[in-house]
Amino acid sequence: MKHILLLLFLGSITVAFSQDVKQKVNAIAERYSAVGVAYVVVKDGQIIHSDAVGYKDLEQKTQLSASQDLFRIASISKSFTATAWMQLVEANKISLDTDFGTLIGFPVRNPNFPDKVITLRMLLSHTSSINDKNGYFNLDAINPANNPDWKEGYNTYEPGTQYEYCNLNFNMAGAALERAVGVRFDTYIKQQILTPLGLNGGYCIDSLDKTAFANIYEYDRQKQRFEAQPAAYAARREELKSYKLGYTTPVFSPTGGMKISAEDLARYMIMHMGFGKSAGVRIIGDLASKIMQTPVNQESGYGLALRQNDNFIPGKTMVGHTGSAYGLYSAMFFHPEERFGIVAITNGCKQVFEDDEPVLLEEIANCLYQHFIYANK
């Protein structure tokens, strides 16, 4: 009886502590007029706290859930593409230094440096000298056979020497992945990463439960109100009818189209924090994981779809990625040595930026760090 009473007492303390944290997170979210925020804290390979404040649907006032609701996580999606490539690199089926033109099926050469090979590594690290000037949702943007303005898709510096963030890099990488494996991109990512880790999510909107999507809102400053962005989850059935494997892949947006819950994103993060392994399941090897986490360009801190960040938690060099699209902002960062990590996602807010980082998510991350990580050292 005493044992049961003790457990009940400890449980009540835990609930009270969680509610206190939630109130503090909610206060931060309200300060930035966030529609909703889902957040997850990970320590030593386990989710130790998960919750959400605000709304999944602002009009219906439906409460947001960190475990059930799916977000289009934007550019964090890039790391799934890079992870799939690293599996092939490990299997000696491809090299990171392969001429990317041989992978994508058309010449990929900066016209200012026609003899310089642009490699897979360069695309996955944003050092390819490719840019988004011609757009990034169609590979014609940079295909010399289909676009007379293809040269505009390259910067004037030598490939491999500088960093410039470019979404086209990863839509191209996703298309080339399809060509390498002969399987549609969304199906392959599910087979190779999501299913082995037991995660619910994917790139194909039409294969997911639409009722689980957290509505995304962009704040219109002229109208001074939030407006829903249904384009974030627009159906792709028509485009898929004429799908061309290895070319129309951007319809899935390998660069930003993953839909997943905050909790499942945290479980994916645990795999990277564990250098490719989580709960006994190995997705990539230790060396491949470390390559992804090691900056290719030192100034930017960017590796292969994972980057170092010194601002997310002051005094800590974290590894991960951010995302932003349609009014959503996402962050996934972990500390490989200290084995903690935080996922935070908002589906809309009056966003304030500092050094290109969403301050709202940084403030929430620091609140969570202080309560769950620092306080327990």
UniProtKB/TrEMBL annotation:
Domain of life: Bacteria
Coiled-coil stretches noted in the UniProt entry, renumbered to this chain: none
Pfam families (alphabetical): Beta-lactamase
Entry-linked InterPro entries: AmpC-like, Beta-lactam-related, Beta-lactam/transpept-like
Domain Beta-lactamase-related residues, every copy: 22-351
Keywords: Signal
Signal sequence interval, chain numbering: 1-18
Name of the protein described by the UniProt record: Beta-lactamase-related domain-containing protein
Source organism of the structure: Sphingobacterium paucimobilis HER1398
Source taxonomy: Bacteria, Pseudomonadati, Bacteroidota, Sphingobacteriia, Sphingobacteriales
